[in-house]
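All the exercises in this workshop are built on plain-text protein records. A record pairs a protein's sequence with a compact description of its fold. Read left to right, the backbone structure tokens trace the chain's path through space. Once this layout is familiar, the rest of the handout is easier to follow. Here is such a record, shown just as it appears in the course material:
>
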Amino acid sequence: MFRLTTNGSSYTILHSFSSGDAYPYGGLVQDTNGVLFGTTFWGGYNNNGTVFMLNTNGNPYTYNILHYFGTAGDGQQPLTGLVLGTNGALYGITPAGGSNGYGTVFRLNTAGGEYTNLHNFS
């Protein structure tokens, strides 16, 4: 992840992904406090992806993984970004996993707890 000023004068790497959280495919969503949230396709339990956050307030920035995909019945390998709901929760989809193996719609609070599968595709 990087930051680039709009005039191109400053480029800064904010986080380098590794085998524990690799291949970020979707875009980022930002909450009102300046925290960025996103997903990775790879990494986590059984390499089924993650949901991460990067707090852009403070120096250095704080990076944390909020959810590891791949536990029983969980979604797997998200390919899209997240949506921040009006209730402050994060929403997303996965193309695999869930109770039928064809993906899920999920909700996760921004603190990383209370992960819920809302729908299992069939």
In short: The chain has a mean pLDDT of 91.
